[in-house]
Design a protein that fits this description.
Blueprint lengths: L2 E6 L6 H12 L3 E7 L8 H11 L5 E6 L13 H12 L6 E4 L4 H8 L2 E4 L11 H6 L18 E6 L6 H11 L3 E3 L2 H7 L10 H16 L5 E5 L2 H12 L4 H9 L4 E5 L17 H14 L5 E3 L3 H16 L10 H6 L4
Parallel strand pairs: 1-2, 1-4, 2-3, 4-5, 6-8, 6-9, 7-8, 9-10
Helix pairs in contact: 3-4, 6-12, 8-9, 9-10
Length: 342
């Protein structure tokens, strides 16, 4: 029986890693994958470990989380190779026959371990990507992020503001422009299908429905997801109509983080429909929304002007958001828990 080993940070996992694992599995009977992490890294090690278990689900593949705070380069410690030998042998359940890498450290590490080294795509010719590339610009390298973990890397952009300021129209236009998807305001669909008038008891199912829509839409987003409002909007209207609070909603409305918020001014004409009744309170509602953004510590980009100008401003700003590195907050346990529907 041949026991193979792959050592990596998988920070984050990408399709080059999956190629390495597929090729390694062809050449050994049992494969151990060590996921090494440091506490200071932006994506928690436990999350990467769970990702790798899901991505490599196979009876003959064991994925082990290595939490040792080891030196990362030979010049950091005089006993670098011996430290790593001890760590690897401690976390490997079987003697190692061969290690598989796409890195130049493969030969010296194999020599220290007393095993064979089989390099796979060292030049990154078959899958030209690195984890550093993805951390620095995930949307630029979207095709190399495994589909199962893409929701963590989606740039979520919220369009917020009071009623009749053009959020829905622009959300659709932006989704078309950036070739991705968007989610409409869940409350509108919910209330349009409700045979009786809105009640206070409607707000919790509206909030949960909207959050579930975001979770599901992120699975299919092409790097960016546009949200026509979010739970902060639901909180604002609950307070306006019922002077009330729902703890589940408040916690998420104030705690959920997004990559960007577009705040819509009230400098376009108000248009009445059957779900709009606050035309006389536009200035007051704008102030309510601004207060809510402040309470949630949410920075925003102001969208104003006519419809053409609004679209131009939004596109220019989102082009900047697209180039941003990974959002560290997206990988925290707090944000993951807040996006869980009980």
């Amino acid at each position: 029986m041949i026991h193979g080993l792959i050592l990596g940070k998988f920070y984050p996992p990408h399709k080059g890693h999956l190629h390495l694992i597929r090729e390694a599995k062809k050449q050994c009977d049992v494969l151990t994958i060590l996921v090494s992490s440091l506490k200071r890294e932006l994506i928690p090690g436990e999350l990467r470990w769970n990702w790798m278990k899901d991505l490599t689900n196979h009876a003959n593949i064991q994925v082990v989380w290595v939490q040792d705070e080891n030196p990362q380069y030979p010049d950091e410690h005089p006993h670098f190779w011996q430290i790593w030998k001890q760590t690897i042998e401690l976390h490997s359940h079987l003697p190692i026959d061969v290690i598989f890498t796409s890195e130049l450290y493969g030969d010296p590490l194999a020599s220290v371990l007393g095993c064979k080294h089989i390099p796979i795509d060292i030049g990154r010719n078959q899958v030209p990507i690195s984890a550093t590339n993805i951390r620095e610009a995930p949307l630029k390298h979207w095709e190399y992020i495994p589909e199962a973990i893409r929701p963590f890397f989606v740039k979520r952009i919220v369009l917020t503001g009071s009623e009749s300021v053009g959020k829905t129209t622009l959300a659709q236009k932006l989704a078309d422009h950036f070739v991705t998807n968007w989610i409409p305001e869940f409350a509108r669909e919910y209330l349009e299908n409700k045979p009786t008038p809105m009640e206070e008891s409607d707000f919790l199912p509206i909030a949960k429905g909207h959050l579930l829509s975001e979770i599901e839409a992120c699975k299919k987003a092409n790097g960016i997801l546009f949200l026509d409002t979010d739970l902060l909007t639901t909180k604002v209207y609950l307070e306006r109509y019922y002077q009330s609070e729902i703890p589940w909603l408040t916690k998420r409305a104030l705690g959920l983080q997004y990559d960007a918020s577009l705040f819509f001014d009230i400098d376009i004409p108000w248009e009445k429909d059957k779900l709009r009744d606050l035309g006389e309170e536009r200035e007051e509602m704008k102030l309510r929304f601004l207060d809510a953004m402040k309470e949630a510590k949410r920075e925003f980009f102001l969208i104003k002007g006519d419809y053409i100008e609004r679209e131009r401003l939004a596109i220019e700003y989102i082009d900047q958001v697209k180039a941003q590195p990974i959002n560290q907050l997206a990988f925290t346990k707090e944000q993951i828990d807040l996006r869980t529907i009980e």
